[in-house]
Amino acid sequence: MRFYETLYLLPPDLSQDEYKAVVEKFNGIIEKNGGVVIRIDEWGKKDLAYQVRKFDKGFYILLQYCGPPGITFLLERDLRLDDRVMKYQTIKLRDKADPEQLKKELAPEEVQEEETPATDEPEEREEESGMTQEGA
């Protein structure tokens, strides 16, 4: 499978329900065509560098996924046909990628912190106690 990243821009006047429907629609297209969604990074409403369709703000969504070579054609066709999508861009990041490994690498920071053992605290205390003994 290949590893891709697609950034798309939605208008700021979408309701919460429409916004979620669009995100789910494009995730579904990837999964229906043999792809695996690795990570969805919703950046929220941001200022645009220039006006797009008379909007100066927009919702940014970064979609990272793995799939066969033709998956970008199918996804971009639907992005182009959907009136709610103002702009989009797709980049191929790797030719050969393992989706399970990428999920571990690109997991959100909260999940990674929970997985790491809490061994840092005792080491810091030993260093602190060593400093106290030297200073006394």
Q: Output the CATH homologous superfamily.
A: Ribosomal protein S6/Translation elongation factor EF1B
Rough outline: globular
Whole-angstrom Rg:
21 Å
Name of the level-1 CATH class: Alpha Beta
How confident is the prediction overall: mean pLDDT? 81
Q: Tally the helices.
A: 5
Please state the second-level CATH architecture. Answer: 2-Layer Sandwich
Query: How many strand elements?
Result: 4
Structure characterization notes:
By secondary structure, this protein is of the alpha+beta class. It has a single domain, classed as 2-Layer Sandwich (Alpha-Beta Plaits), CATH 3.30.70. The protein contains five helices and four strands. A hairpin with a 2-residue loop joins strand 2 and strand 3. The longest helix has 17 residues.
Descriptive keywords:
alpha+beta, Alpha-Beta Plaits, four-stranded antiparallel sheet, 5 helices
Summarize the structure.
The protein is an alpha+beta fold and 136 residues long. The chain contains 5 helices and 4 strands, in the order βαββαβααα. The chain has a 4-stranded antiparallel β-sheet with strand order 2-3-1-4.
What's the arrangement of secondary structure elements?
Elements: E1 2-10, H1 16-32, E2 36-52, E3 55-67, H2 71-81, E4 87-94, H3 99-105, H4 109-115, H5 120-135
Antiparallel strand pairs: 1-3, 1-4, 2-3
